[in-house]
Amino acid sequence: MKSGFRTLNIRPSGEVRVNLNDKFELNQSYTFTHYHSNYESTEFNNQTLNYHDACSEVIYRFGQHWVWETQLDYRYNPNAVPGLLQSYYKWNAAASQISYH
Length: 101
Prior knowledge:
Elements: E1 5-10, E2 13-20, E3 24-39, E4 47-62, E5 66-76, E6 87-97
Antiparallel strand pairs: 1-3, 2-3, 3-4, 4-5, 5-6
């Protein structure tokens, strides 16, 4: 089955970044996504999807060779099908030693 279709994807976002002398960084971002598809054939269902993404990141550099960073991502999808999570968090963290001179 073939069908023509149209899609609309709107994705506004905002971001705030603070950097204090490359010793401390704080980054925040938020994105809202609206997706709509419209099919010519009635064999396919039109879809409208909305979801939200937020991200927080902290980076701390101490001494000359150490970096600690962490990032927390959040996604909310009110259109999730039964059995899938509507929202979830993902957390990453690292401590690094930089060995260049």
